[in-house]
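We include this case.
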Amino acid sequence: MQSDQVGLTQANRPPRNPVRFTLTEKLTIEHVMPQAWQTYWPLPANAKADPLTEQKAIMRRETVLNTLGNLTLITGNFNSSLQNAAWKDKKPELLTYGKLNLTQYFHGQDANEWDEAAIRMRTEHLFKLLLGMWPDASKVA
């Protein structure tokens, strides 16, 4: 995604007053929990109680991977070797190379752990922000 100017709403400003600035770096979409999660993002022990429970947990995880709450925009300087890294290693990189307000969420307590519940919570958070910016979006669905 290449952009000369990006309008973003700051949390302390009314939704109708976007802040415009010029991005000098290319932005890329990053999966917070990576699509190749198996190595560094293991399922919790209780999700492996039996094969059926484990399969359901895998399906739930695979379902949330490509949802809005698990995606963010980062600058090209993000260390690509950390794309699949564990959350404790990846989070500081996201905070460093996520230049948009979109990434500020990861500074909060809701992002101390990153799992399916955290992804759903961030999805709801982002959706509420979007409805605040575009209140008629609810009529599109």
